[in-house]
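REQUEST ID: PR-0412
SUBMITTED BY: lab tech R.K.
PRIORITY: routine
TASK: structure prediction, single protein chain
INPUT:
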Amino acid sequence: MDSLRQPLVGNFGLWLVLLQLKPGTETIVNDRLTQSLPNARPYKCFGKFDYMLMTEFQDFAQLRDLDKDLLDLSSNILQVNHIVCYALDNPCSCRLSADAYAEEPFATITFLKFQHGLMRQSGVSLISAFNSYLGEVKAGLRSSHQILYGCLGWNELLLVTLGKDLDNTLCDIAAIGKMRTKDLGLPGEYGLFADTFSIAAMRFGCVQELLSGGNLADSGVPEVQKIQVSLSVSCSTGRSRQRILDKIDEYFGDCKLSLLYGKDDILVQPNTTLTTAFLTALLRFREDAEVRQQVFGTCTTLALPWLGEEKDSSSPPAELVPQQEEKVEVCSGITELRDQNYPLFKSLNDILCSMNAYFSDPVLCDAFLDMVPFLKRLALAPKEEVYDLTMDLWQAVNVFSKGFKQRFVGSSVTLFNVTESILSYQGGLQRVNVAACLIPAVLLKRLKHEWYGYTVFGVGNQYKRYHFGVINLPYECLFEPARWFGVFHEVGHDLAHKRQVLQADPSVLKEAGIADLGDYAKNNTDELDDKLPDLITAVEAYSDLFDFLCGFREDWSLYASKVLRYVFSNVPQELRFYRAYFKRTFMVFCYHKLGIRQAFEDLASEDFEGTRRRLLEELYDELCGLVESVKDSMPLNFDLIRDVYVHHARWRKFCKWAASDIETLREPIPEKWNDRCIEAVQDLRKGIARDDFDDADGLILSLPMEERDVRLVIAIILSLSTRYLSQFAPSSLPVFVRQSG
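STATUS: complete
OUTPUT:
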């Protein structure tokens, strides 16, 4: 398929919230959430979750507002999952309108995961093609409404189906799940989807109607004929199972009861299908005061009768089948840790062994493609690096755990698992993480270096590089790619590590009485900052110069309006912090104004004192104009610059080397890059996903600082993530093995 040149992303998003609740709390939760979001669509779920809320949004700030409500209701919530989706801009798609919601009592949400490799092979046009095809076959479907959304999580699509007849709705979903590649004009005749799973639900207004003694048949809703139902009951610890059995008999009457071994305790199998009588009994059972005390939770399972064998489709072509063909021998540095540091050895070994299992899983393997370079780099780390970086490796283990969860959750395996936080977008982080990965990858590629890391959100509330190039972004900028420019500085740290910046001036180590920096850092971690303050600051200076030269392409106006405003607005308002950041900023400013020789040689002489004072005043005035607190917290001080430039020759020498090193590595700034990026932003604002666009860092620079337009943000995430994943082939999946012999 050709790259998409028609709008794909609609002008609003869809937030899907799934909650497992304590029995009898549905009405309390519903009243609170619908009061905050009057246009939301609430449903009573069948399955492990009890409650579902779908709400359209045009501002990501609305998601944070709903987070506050969920926190207030947390005493009623057992489990939660959030899925962030987006509307598709296509005549075949429609909105979850108030009329459709009010008319149809049943809804089913179905997560659709394309066959592995199809998205990497066809790009975002695959989503548009399926959307168009679904519009063509709608007339043959028996449910009343089908609304297709894109997903930012592990699944590419979410299908919402509305109707009065749940039998027909589930049959339609089964038919959609059987679609073949030939239906979209793709070669072969194999299944289009690697995985599908559904959750059925009933409009919450129907719940209130049934509890008040109403009957759905009065509203023209036919009784369910085909769908079989069972109910699993989990008893609270220490409660009487007999009392619960008595309550089941009171509400459900004649049914088959079984005692379960495992998480749930009782299985209820009625002798009917999913009738109105069963629904009413289920709702009243959960509302019963004694049941609330005795029962921890319930799970309703729906099933269609098996109608016979299905015809098998042909297998996907070899290039789309995930295969672990690349054997990676784990280096002796890790294996020998068994005797030196067994807890660390076990943690590293567990990571590699567990990834072997996930890479061999035909459904889940592609969730971790962007972590492959890191895992291979970890497995192949030389012995001396492993021994010298024990603390860093422990940190790498902890950060990996967070990054792993952000890629694993939201899949068919983990959607129903307990989440670690009520405020995490469990089913909507995968594509955001992958989109952010493209920035460091392209920045280092231009400098002929490879990036081995991955990105993660929310390990801390700041941009930070961890060992092997892993980069953390603040959680608050998750859906604000205009603020991802903070990644540039962290890529500078990664380049500094590759260029062995700490060894650039051996005389510094000699003066400090240190024979080997790695050995000293390992044994004297707490003293390092005090022992080598200039050297540590020098590494930051290298990253600042990289940020300005390569990230911001020597555009001081952009650099000041974004980086300086961000840094000096977030730095603790103490003089020592302002002085430290001002020292580094002045170095970049002088380079911008004077170039390497004058900035780092001539400017230190007495003849240039007037120039120093003029530049200092100019930068100080600009900072005060950007951030008002600077003037109050850091008075103008000419002695600061004299300390930096006149007395610290070592500092100037290092900065000169750093600027020369980066200038030597970087390519010329592309001509008219800004025009091309502005054109790309214009396309993205229209919802056109550009999966052929490589200039991810230029794109970020072209966005206004406060840009939060939902359509633009989602189009950027979809475009950058698709572009980054296109470089991975299924056969590149590694299998980690012990060294032979």
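NOTES: The longest strand covers residues 9-21.
REVIEWED BY: pending
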